[in-house]
Amino acid sequence: MRRLNGVETLERASVLDALIRPVKRAASRIQHGRVGDALHGVWLGHPAHPAFVQLPIGAWVSSGILDALPGHEQESRRLIQTGLTAALPAVLTGAADWSQQNQRQSRVGFVHSIANGTAIVLYASSLIARSNGRNLKGKLLAYAGLTAVGAGGFLGGHITYRQAGGVNRAEGVVRAFPREWRTAAPLAELPERRLARQTVDGVDLLVVRDGDTVHALIETCSHLAGPLSEGTLVDGGAQLRDACVQCPWHGSTFRLGDGDVVHGPATAPQPVLRTRVRDGVVEVRSPD
User: What share of the chain is helix, strand, coil (3-state, %, to 5)?
Assistant: First the structure.
């Protein structure tokens, strides 16, 4: 058996779950409605948290460089203050994303948040020490804060690139789907205005029939790969293309007609396949 590294061991640390559950319940309260959509980054088309962490990290790294040079104490203080101010939106966007992550991601994310929270406390303490004329202590506290930020950044990278947190789970699926027309199902076998799953060339599709019109989307939710066919059809009125499907796992909501995100936590649209009906048989192909 392959030996686990430190972060892989952290992923399996079920002892953290008792601490995570109440914090996650509190964090999930900010991820609903328009505020939640904004924090997740629906307006950006990808998670907002990675963008918002750039300013505090950049300000604190710059402060660390200035602290190593003589005569830049005032500039260093201003950069620390800037980083502390910019940390608030970074924390809120991160908390919104973390509240919807799976168990292993949540464990790493919990320690990630502790590291970054520690950095915030250390930088605030650095400002206090400097204000009291204890510049050396202030610099040491700031470098300790930078170390904590580095640890948090390492764990954040693990969540993103190793655990695929915030990654569009549907992108690779649709890119692998054939560009030629493929048979999906006889039209008569599809239920009217109900969610159905069809497997074509080994790929699961969400298929919804509206008379002689059929809407087909990649079934794997772009957020965390939830099965959309097991979700809820939110009726949009007379035109089914304006209706939405809501993922059963985290509530991400997509419009059937174009796959656009109506509500997060998903930020990437759901891929919509091209469809046609020939001789009573539904055919589908890649949207490209």
Answer: 50, 20, 30
Cα–Cα distance between 270 and 246 in angstroms, integer? 11
Q: What whole-number distance in Å separates Cα of residue 213 and Cα of residue 219? A: 18
Alpha carbon distance 141, 126 (integer Å): 5
The two structure tokens encoding residue 1: 């058996």
- Given a contact cutoff of 8 angstroms between Cβ atoms, the answer to whether 104 and 117 are in contact is no
pLDDT per residue of the chain (288 residues) written in tens, 0 to 9 = 667 788 999 999 999 999 999 999 998 887 778 899 999 999 999 999 999 999 999 999 999 999 999 999 999 999 999 999 999 999 999 999 999 999 999 999 999 999 999 999 999 999 999 999 999 999 999 999 999 999 999 999 999 999 999 899 999 899 989 899 999 999 999 999 999 999 999 999 999 999 999 999 999 999 999 999 999 998 766 677 789 999 999 999 999 999 999 999 999 999 999 999 999 999 999 987
pTM: 0.88
